[in-house]
Design a protein that fits this description.
The structure holds two protein chains of two kinds.
Chain A (H helix, E strand, L loop, with lengths): L2 H28 L2 H13 L4 H17 L5 H16 L11 E6 L6 H14 L4 E6 L6 H12 L2 E4 L6 H14 L4 E6 L7 H17 L4 E9 L5 H13 L3 E5 L9 H9 L3 E5 L7 E3 L2 H8 L1
Parallel strand pairs in A: 1-4, 1-5, 2-3, 2-4, 5-6, 6-7
Antiparallel strand pairs in A: 7-8
Chain B lengths: L6 H8 L11 H17 L4 H15 L10 H16 L24 E6 L6 H14 L4 E6 L6 H12 L2 E3 L6 H15 L3 E6 L7 H14 L3 E7 L6 H12 L3 E5 L9 H9 L3 E5 L7 E3 L2 H8 L5 H11 L2 H13 L4 H13 L3 H7 L3 H4 L9 H12 L3 H5 L6 H11 L3 H22 L8
Parallel strand pairs in B: 1-4, 1-5, 2-3, 2-4, 5-6, 6-7
Antiparallel strand pairs in B: 7-8
Helix pairs in contact in B: 1-2, 1-4, 2-3, 3-4, 4-11, 5-6, 7-8, 9-10, 14-17, 17-19, 19-20
The chains are: A alpha/beta, B alpha/beta.
C-alpha cells in the first residue's frame, strides 16, 4: 500500500468516525431518548415483555443511527417491520387429513369455545370433524362442548364427568379411525402449568394419541388469553416442555388487550401463532395475520 | 443460596460499589429505580401505575440515611415493599401478615345480595361455588342465582358447583338475566335464604350492551356487594378492565383468581391503584375450599419475586401441632428418626398442600424447580406411604433388619416392586444423613 492510499484510508476513517458522531448527535437531537422511551412504552403497554422490548428497540435505534435516519415515521416503520419479521416466520398451519388437534391451556382461556369455532371452520372446508370431550374435570364442560358440537354439526365423543381423560381420547381415536374422520379435535381440561399431576395426565393423553394413531398428522395447540400478561411465557414454556407445542391460538383478541406477549414467544421460544379468536360467535376465528397484528399494536 | 432472587440480586449489583455509610444519592437511587421499574413491569404492573409508583418511591428514598442494620439493597427493597403494601391496602409495621378487607358486608335486612362481574374465563362461576361454601360454613343460608344465560352450559356448571357446595341453585334457563336476578331475590325472601349470590355472564368491558345489562341487574336487586372477579394472570389491560367495571357499577371489592399459578400478580397492584377498592379474597385452587383472605404484604413479596414465605410458615403451623413439632425436634436431635417418622413427614407435607405447593412458595424456587421433576409426584408419595405401611413396626424402627425375604413381602403387601422398596430405603438413609449434617449446621440450631 502506497503512502497516499494509507493517508487516504486513515483520513476516511476519521471522516467516517466524525460523520458518525455528528449523526449520532443529530439523531439524538431529533430522535431523542424520549422518543425511544415512548416506543418502549407502546410495546410494554401491549404486554410485550420488558426484555424483548428493550432488545427490539435497541436494535431499531442502532439501525436508525447506522442509516443516519432522522425521521420518526421511518423509525416507526422500521420497528413495525422488525416486529412483523419476528412474528411472520411460520407457514400457515395446513391441517392435512387424517389429523388430530389437541387443544391445551390454563383455565378460562377459552379452549372449549375455540374448539367449537375450529370445528365449524373445518366443516366449512368440507372436512369431516369429530370432537373429543376430554375435559372430564370441570363441571359441565362436556355439556358446553356438546352445544358447540351441535352448532357446528359435528360428532362428539364423551364420557361422564370425572372419567379418565385418556380413555376418552382412546375411544375418540377408535371412532375417528372407524369413521375415517378427517380431523379429530381433542378438548382438554384447563390446567395451571404448575400442577405436576395434571401435566402428567396431559402427557398420558399425548402418549395415547401417539401410540393409537401414529399415522395421523398430530398438532398440539395452546390457547392463550390475550388479556394475559407475562405469565403467557411460562405457560407456553412448560406446556411445550411437557408435550411439545406446534402453535398458539390467541383468544379474546376482541377486547382492548393486545396480546403483545406473542412477540416474546416468537422471539424467544419460536412458537408461532396459528389462529386468532376475535369474538363469541362461531365464525369468530381467523388465521393469524402478522401484519394486521403489528398494526394493531400501534 | 441466595434467598431473595430477582430484584435483590440486581439491586445488590447496583449498590455493589456503594460504601457502607452515608446517604443514598440521587444517582444511585435512579439506577436502582430502573431495576425496580423493570421488576414491576415484568410482574405485569401497569406502566402508568409503575411510573407513579417509582417516582413516589424515589422521593422517599433520596437522602435517606443508610441504616446500619440494613444494606442499601435491603433498604431500597424495604421502602419499595412498604409502599407496595400500603398501596394494596395494608398497613406497615406491627400489623404485618394481616389480611385486609376479607369481610363481606351484609345487609341489615336479609337477603344480602352479592353480585359477580368480570371478563370471560376469570372464574366467576367457580367462585360463586366457593363463596357459597364459605358462607354456608359460617352458618348462613346462601342461594346461588344463575344469570349467565349466554355461555353454553354455564347454568349446568353452576348447578354442579352448587351441589358440591351444598347450596341451592336458582335458575330459569336462558331467560332475561335481569328478570332472573329479580326473581331469584324474591325466591330467597320467600324461602328464607339470607344471602343471594348472583352469577353473571363474562363480558368485555367495552361491550356496551352487556355492561348495560349489569347496570340493570344492579338497579333491580340492589346488591350489598359487587365483586369484580379478575384473573391474577392479567396483563397491562387490568387497569382498563377494573376502571371500566368500577365506573359503571361502583364495585365494592375485588377477588383474585388462579393465584395458585406462578404469575407474579402485578395486575393486583394496577387494579387496586385505579379503583381504590379492597381485595377481598384470593382463589388458590380448583377445590371449593380453596378460597383465602388477601394479604397485602405477601402479595408485595410475590410481585417483587421474593416468594411467599409467610404463607408457607402459616401452612406449616396449620399442619403441624406443637406437640408433633417438639417430638420431631427431639428425634431430630437424637438422630432417632425412623421410617414411621418419615411417613408422618409425608403426611404433614400433604396437609400443607403437597410438596410442589410448598416449593412454589419458597423464594427463588418457583421458577428454578420445574414441575415435571419426578420427585414431586404426589402419586409417588402415595406409593411410598404404601410401602412403609406394609412394614411391621419393628421394621420401621430398625430398617437394617429388612432382608430380601422381608423386602419381597413388603413389595407384595404394598403392590410395588423390590426395586421400589430398595429405592425408598436408600432415600431414607440419605434423609437421615442429611439430618445429621443439618444438626451440625448452626443455621438449624434451635429449630
Amino acid at each position: 500500500m502506497g503512502l497516499f492510499s494509507k493517508i487516504k484510508a486513515v483520513l476516511s476513517k476519521t471522516r467516517d468516525g466524525l460523520a458518525k458522531k455528528l449523526n449520532e448527535l443529530f439523531a439524538k437531537n431529533k430522535l431523542g431518548e424520549e422518543f425511544y422511551e415512548e416506543l418502549e412504552d407502546i410495546l410494554i403497554s401491549a404486554d410485550v415483555s420488558v426484555k424483548t422490548t428493550m432488545e427490539i428497540v435497541d436494535e431499531i435505534r442502532d439501525t436508525a443511527i447506522k442509516e443516519k435516519c432522522k425521521d420518526k415515521d421511518y423509525v416507526i416503520e422500521l420497528l413495525k417491520n422488525e416486529l412483523f419479521e419476528t412474528l411472520d416466520y411460520a407457514d400457515k398451519l395446513d391441517v392435512k387429513a387424517p389429523a388430530i388437534i389437541m387443544v391445551v391451556g390454563v383455565n378460562g382461556v377459552g379452549k372449549t369455545t375455540t374448539i367449537g369455532k375450529l370445528a365449524n371452520k373445518f366443516v366449512k372446508e368440507k372436512k369431516s370433524v369429530t370432537i373429543a370431550a376430554a375435559d372430564t374435570f370441570r363441571a359441565a364442560a362436556s355439556d358446553q362442548l356438546s352445544v358447540w358440537a351441535e352448532r357446528a354439526k359435528v360428532r362428539i365423543i364423551k364420557h361422564s364427568e370425572g372419567a379418565d381423560a385418556s380413555a376418552v381420547v382412546f375411544d375418540a381415536i377408535e371412532s375417528a379411525k372407524a369413521k375415517k374422520t378427517d380431523v379429530l379435535i381433542i378438548d382438554t381440561a384447563g390446567r395451571l402449568h404448575v400442577k405436576a399431576n395434571l401435566m402428567e395426565e396431559l402427557k398420558k393423553m399425548d402418549r395415547v394419541v401417539k401410540r393409537e394413531y401414529p399415522d395421523a398428522n398430530y398438532y398440539k395447540l395452546i390457547a392463550l388469553d390475550a388479556t394475559t400478561g407475562q405469565n403467557a411465557y411460562n405457560q407456553v414454556e412448560v406446556f411445550n416442555e411437557a408435550v411439545g407445542i406446534d402453535g398458539i391460538i390467541l383468544t379474546k383478541l376482541d377486547g382492548t388487550a393486545k396480546g403483545g406477549f406473542i412477540v416474546s414467544l416468537s422471539y424467544e421460544l419460536e412458537v408461532p401463532v396459528c389462529f386468532v379468536g376475535t369474538g363469541e360467535k362461531i365464525d369468530d376465528i381467523e388465521d393469524f395475520d402478522a401484519k394486521e397484528f403489528v398494526e394493531g399494536l400501534f | 443460596m441466595a434467598l431473595f432472587s430477582g430484584l435483590s440480586e440486581k439491586l445488590n449489583h447496583v449498590f455493589s460499589k456503594l460504601t457502607k455509610h452515608g446517604r443514598l444519592t440521587e444517582l444511585e437511587i435512579k439506577t436502582a429505580m430502573r431495576e425496580v421499574r423493570i421488576a414491576l413491569l415484568e410482574a405485569d404492573v401497569n406502566i402508568s401505575v409503575v411510573k407513579d409508583f417509582v417516582s413516589r418511591v424515589s422521593e422517599r428514598a433520596v437522602g435517606q440515611e443508610i441504616l446500619k442494620s440494613l444494606s442499601p439493597t435491603q433498604q431500597v427493597i424495604k421502602i419499595v415493599n412498604e409502599e407496595l403494601i400500603v398501596l394494596m391496602g395494608g398497613t406497615v409495621g406491627k400489623q404485618e401478615g394481616i389480611a385486609t378487607g376479607s369481610k363481606l358486608n351484609f345487609a341489615p335486612n336479609p337477603p344480602t345480595v352479592i353480585m359477580m362481574a368480570g371478563l370471560q374465563g376469570a372464574g366467576k362461576t367457580t367462585l360463586v361455588g366457593k363463596l357459597g361454601m364459605m358462607l354456608k360454613k359460617q352458618g348462613r343460608k346462601p342461594l346461588l342465582v344463575a344469570c349467565d344465560v349466554y355461555r353454553p352450559a354455564a347454568i349446568n356448571q353452576l348447578k354442579v358447583v352448587g351441589e358440591k357446595a351444598g347450596c341451592t341453585v336458582f335458575e330459569k334457563g336462558q331467560g332475561n338475566p335481569v328478570k332472573i336476578a329479580k326473581e331469584g331475590v324474591a325466591y330467597a325472601k320467600s324461602y328464607g335464604f339470607d344471602t343471594v349470590i348472583v352469577d353473571t355472564a363474562g363480558r368485555l368491558q367495552i361491550d356496551e350492551q352487556l355492561m348495560k345489562e349489569l347496570e340493570d341487574i344492579k338497579a333491580e336487586v340492589n346488591p350489598t356487594e359487587i365483586l369484580l372477579v379478575v384473573d391474577s394472570m392479567t396483563g397491562q389491560v387490568a387497569v382498563e378492565v377494573a376502571d371500566t367495571f368500577n365506573k359503571r357499577l361502583e364495585v365494592s371489592g375485588l377477588v383474585l383468581t388462579k393465584l395458585d399459578g406462578d404469575t407474579r400478580g402485578g395486575a393486583t397492584l394496577s387494579m387496586k391503584a385505579v379503583t381504590g377498592k379492597p381485595i377481598k379474597f384470593c382463589s388458590v385452587g380448583e377445590k371449593l375450599g380453596d378460597l383465602e383472605p388477601f394479604y397485602p404484604d405477601r402479595m408485595a413479596n410475590r410481585i417483587l419475586g421474593m416468594g411467599d414465605v409467610l404463607s408457607l410458615i402459616e401452612k406449616a403451623q396449620d399442619a403441624v401441632t406443637e406437640e408433633q413439632a417438639k417430638k420431631m425436634e427431639k428425634k431430630f436431635r437424637e438422630n432417632s428418626f425412623t421410617l414411621d417418622d418419615y411417613l408422618t413427614q409425608f403426611e404433614t407435607m400433604k396437609k400443607m398442600g403437597g410438596i410442589k405447593d410448598v416449593l412454589a412458595m419458597l423464594p427463588g424456587m418457583g421458577s428454578k424447580f420445574k414441575i415435571n421433576d419426578a420427585d414431586i409426584d404426589e402419586k409417588k408419595i402415595a406409593r411410598t406411604k404404601a410401602i412403609i405401611q406394609s412394614m411391621t413396626m419393628y421394621e420401621r424402627e430398625n430398617p437394617s433388619v429388612i432382608n430380601s425375604s422381608r423386602k419381597n413381602r413388603i413389595a407384595k403387601g404394598s403392590g410395588t416392586s423390590v426395586q421400589e422398596v430398595n429405592r425408598l430405603l436408600k432415600q431414607f438413609e440419605q434423609t437421615k444423613l442429611m439430618m445429621k449434617q443439618m444438626k451440625n449446621n448452626r443455621m438449624f440450631r434451635g429449630f
